[in-house]
């Protein structure tokens, strides 16, 4: 696991979701109850950008169709999504946010677009 600096802590205020990059990995970074979280930036339902959504209850909500995902596990907590999203370890150190990336895993991206291109 390699931790990559993606943002200054102040760039992700409480209740906000923002898109950042850790090399070629695109992540949605959010802050809930003072803690920073990092997930895939793509909803597993129809690939909408989660960084365009907002935090809802204990999760990250998709602005397209209302799906929501648990910030810790990535599991869907509100339909229509039924598949989880990827979550990444997230740490704050010295005023910066770091996201843990496993270089052996390919970057998470839009799933439906990948399926269409292989069909």
TrEMBL record:
Residues 98-119 are annotated as: Disordered. Keywords: 2Fe-2S, Dioxygenase, Iron, Iron-sulfur, Metal-binding, Oxidoreductase. GO terms for molecular function: 2 iron, 2 sulfur cluster binding; dioxygenase activity; metal ion binding; monooxygenase activity; oxidoreductase activity, acting on paired donors, with incorporation or reduction of molecular oxygen. Pfam families: Rieske (PF00355). The keyword Oxidoreductase applies. It comes from the Bacteria. The keyword Calcium does not apply. Signal peptide: none annotated. Residues 3-99 form the Rieske domain. PANTHER family: 3-PHENYLPROPIONATE_CINNAMIC ACID DIOXYGENASE FERREDOXIN SUBUNIT (PTHR21496:SF23), FERREDOXIN-RELATED (PTHR21496). This is Aromatic ring dioxygenase.
């Amino acid at each position: 696991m390699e931790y990559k600096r993606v943002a200054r802590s102040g760039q992700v205020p409480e209740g906000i979701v923002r898109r950042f990059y850790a090399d070629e990995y695109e992540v949605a970074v959010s802050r809930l109850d003072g803690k920073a979280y990092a997930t895939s930036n793509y909803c597993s339902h129809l690939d909408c950008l989660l960084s365009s959504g907002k935090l809802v209850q204990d999760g990250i909500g998709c602005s397209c169709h209302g799906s929501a995902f648990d910030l810790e596990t990535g599991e869907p907590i509100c339909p229509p999504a039924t598949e989880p999203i990827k979550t990444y370890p997230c740490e704050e150190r010295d005023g910066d946010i770091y996201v843990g990336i496993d270089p052996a895993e390919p970057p998470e991206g839009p799933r439906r677009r990948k399926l269409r291109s292989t069909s």
